[in-house]
Amino acid sequence: LGGGGATVWVAMAYDPELDLLYIGTGNGSPWNREIRSPGGGDNLYLSSIVALRPDTGEYVWHYQVTPKDSWDYTATQHLILADIEREGVIRKVIMQAPKNGFFYVLDRRNGELISAEPFEQVNWASHIDMRTGRPVETALADYNKTGGSMIWPASFGAHNWQPMSYSEQTGLVYIPAQHGAAFFKAEKKFNFTPHRWNTGIDFGDIRYNTDPIVSRANADAMIKGYLLAWDPVKQRKAWRVRHASIANGGVLSTAGGLVFQGTGEGGFYAYSDDRGERLWGVKLDSAVLAAPMTYALQGEQYVAVNQGAGGAVVLALGKPQQNSTGNPNRLMVFKLMDESKPEKALLFPPAPKLPRTEFSVTVNDDLVESGARLYGRNCAVCHGLSVEGSGVVPDLRYMDERSHREFQAVVLAGLKSHRGMVGFYETLTAEQVDSIHAYVISRNHALRDSSQWSYWDHLRYWFWYFISWLSDKFPWLINAG
Question: In Å, what is the CA distance from 190 to each residue of 35, 201, 433?
Answer without folding.
Answer: 8, 9, 20
